[in-house]
Specification:
- It contains eight helices and 22 strands.
- It is about 20% helix and about 25% strand.
- Helix 3 (about 195-215) packs parallel to helix 4 (about 235-250) and helix 5 (about 310-320) packs parallel to helix 7.
- It starts with 9 loop residues before the first helix and ends with a strand.
- By secondary structure, it is an alpha+beta fold.
Length: about 450
C-alpha cells in the first residue's frame, strides 16, 4: 500500500498489513522475530480544515505503542511525528488531531506501531489534501444508502459497495459526502436500541469496506433513517447510537468550521474552495405527533418532518451569511414527502415532488432566496435529477441497497435504477455533477453556474 490515491481494491487492501487483523490473521513477523502489530480498522480521515485533520484507527489484538508521522508532499522528505507516542490497549480507537498544516496542500502520513520492547514500524499509510480556500477547483464524491451491516459478505449489495468505492477512488476526490443510511441492521429503523451490538457490527463493516477510500479521502457523513437516531426513539437509545457513530465515523461538530453546527456532529456546514456545503439532519429532530401506523414509520403526519427550530434557524443564518459562488445543501431526504402512495409520502419519499410540502417548503424558499443551486439527497436508491424553481434536486443513486424504488413508489417519471455514485467537479466557472453507475459509466450529467 502506498501513500498515493492509486487504484486500490478492497481485496488488495485487506491483503496488506493494515487489513490483516480485520480478517482475523495473526500479527506479521519481521526478519529477526520481531512481531509487527496490525490494525483491526485502518485509517479514517475526518474534519479536514485549512490547518488540521483528524486521523482515526483501531488497534489490533495486542497492546502497542503508536505514532503518527506526516510530511508535505511538496516539502522535505523527512517524516515529522504528530505528537508524542501513545500507549494503546488492544482493540482501542486512537485519534490524532494533526495541526499546523497549510491550506489546499497535500500531505502523506504513516501510522507506526510496535509491541512492548520492539521498534516502531509502519502499519498504514495514506495521503490527504487540506481544505481549499478561494476560487480553486477540486473533485468530490457523493454516495448514498449502502445499508452496510444488512447484507452478508460476498452478497450482491456488498459487491456493489466495493465496486462503487473502487470507482470513487479512481476519481481521486478530495472528500466524500455520504448521504445517510450508511449503516443498517435488522432492527435499527423500527425499534429502539438498548445495546450497541448491532451498531458496532454495522459500523465496523462500513469502515472495512470504505477503507480503500477512507485512508486518503476525508469522510463527511449524514444521518439517515437506518442509523438508529430517529426522533421517534427514546433519547437514551438515540444517544447510544450517536455515541457509536461518533466513535467509528467522527464528523465535524459545532467548533470545527466557522459556520458551526451541532455538538452531536449530526448537522454542520463547511466551505471548500468556492462552494458552501450545508449538511442537514432530517431524522433526529422530527418527532411523531401521535401514534405510528407501522414500526417503519418515523412520523404520524407528513407535517411532522422537521429540522427543529435550532437547526432551521442555524440553516437560515448560514445561508444568509454566505457569499459563496456555489451553495449546495445535503440531506437524507426532504423535510416532507410527496410520493406515489400515502405510506411512501409519510416515509419521506418524493424528492423534488415534495419541494413545497410541509417544512420542506420553508427550506426550498430559503434555497431560492439565498441562491442554492443543488439539493443533494438519498433515500430513494435511484439516480434522479429534476429542477424546481431552478434548484436541482439530485439523488446520486445507491452504493449498495438493492431496492430501486420505481414510479409506483416514488412517483418519479424520469430516473435511473442503477447503483453508483455522484462525482462533483468544481471549477470557478462551473460545477458539474456526473452520475456514475456501478460499471463506472457516466449515465447523466448536469452543470450549474456560479451566482
Amino acid at each position: 500500500m502506498t501513500g498515493s490515491k492509486g487504484d486500490l481494491s478492497r481485496r488488495s487492501f485487506l491483503a496488506g498489513v493494515t487489513g490483516a487483523a480485520a480478517l482475523g490473521l495473526p500479527q506479521r513477523a519481521r526478519p529477526g522475530g520481531q512481531v509487527v502489530p496490525t490494525l483491526s480498522l485502518p485509517p479514517f480521515l475526518a474534519r479536514p480544515t485549512t490547518e488540521s485533520i483528524l486521523v482515526s484507527v483501531r488497534s489490533g489484538v495486542v497492546d502497542t505503542t503508536a505514532r503518527l508521522e506526516i510530511r508535505a508532499v511538496l516539502g522535505p522528505t523527512i517524516w515529522s511525528a504528530a505528537g508524542a507516542d501513545r500507549s494503546v490497549p488492544a482493540g482501542e480507537f486512537v485519534r490524532w488531531e494533526i495541526g499546523d498544516l497549510a491550506s489546499g496542500s497535500a500531505y502523506d502520513y504513516q501510522v507506526l506501531m510496535a509491541t512492548p520492547g520492539e521498534d516502531l514500524a509502519p502499519v498504514a499509510t495514506g495521503r490527504f489534501t487540506t481544505q481549499r480556500v478561494g476560487e480553486v477547483g477540486f473533485t468530490a464524491a457523493l454516495t448514498a444508502d449502502p445499508h452496510t451491516g444488512s447484507f452478508a459478505e460476498g452478497s450482491a449489495p456488498v459487491i456493489a459497495l466495493d465496486d462503487v468505492v473502487r470507482n470513487v477512488q479512481r476519481d481521486r476526490p478530495e472528500f466524500v459526502i455520504a448521504l445517510g443510511d450508511n449503516v443498517a441492521w435488522n432492527t435499527s429503523r423500527d425499534y429502539a436500541q438498548y445495546d450497541d451490538f448491532g451498531a458496532n457490527f454495522a459500523y465496523t463493516m462500513y469502515r472495512e469496506h470504505m477503507a480503500p477510500l477512507s485512508v486518503s479521502c476525508p469522510h463527511f457523513g449524514l444521518i439517515g433513517n437506518w442509523e438508529g437516531e430517529s426522533g421517534k426513539f427514546p433519547a437514551e437509545s438515540a444517544a447510544l447510537m450517536a455515541t457509536v457513530r461518533r466513535k467509528f465515523a467522527p464528523g465535524p461538530n459545532n467548533l470545527t468550521y466557522p459556520q458551526g453546527g451541532s455538538p452531536n456532529e449530526d448537522y454542520y456546514a463547511f466551505d471548500w474552495g468556492p462552494v458552501l456545503f450545508v449538511v442537514l439532519n432530517v431524522q433526529s429532530y422530527s418527532a411523531p405527533s401521535g401514534s405510528l401506523s407501522t414500526p417503519m414509520a418515523d412520523v404520524t403526519l407528513v407535517g411532522d418532518w422537521s429540522l427543529g427550530a435550532a437547526q432551521r434557524s442555524w440553516l437560515e443564518g448560514v445561508l444568509a451569511a454566505s457569499d459563496h459562488p456555489f451553495k449546495f445543501v445535503c440531506i437524507h431526504h426532504p423535510v416532507g414527502g410527496n410520493a406515489a402512495t400515502s405510506m411512501e409520502t409519510l416515509y419521506g419519499r418524493g424528492g423534488p415532488r415534495a419541494a413545497l410540502v410541509g417544512e420542506q417548503r420553508l427550506v426550498h424558499e430559503m434555497m431560492r432566496e439565498f441562491g442554492v443551486q443543488i439539493f443533494f439527497f438519498g433515500h430513494d436508491h435511484v439516480f434522479l435529477d429534476e429542477s424546481v424553481d431552478g434548484i436541482h434536486y439530485a439523488l446520486p443513486g445507491s452504493c449498495g441497497a438493492p431496492w430501486k424504488f420505481g414510479r409506483e413508489v416514488t412517483g418519479y417519471q424520469r430516473y435511473w435504477p442503477d447503483s453508483g455514485h455522484g462525482r462533483l467537479t468544481v471549477r470557478p466557472e462551473r460545477a458539474t455533477v456526473d452520475f456514475v453507475d456501478q460499471a463506472g459509466r457516466i449515465i447523466h450529467q448536469f452543470a450549474v453556474e456560479p451566482v
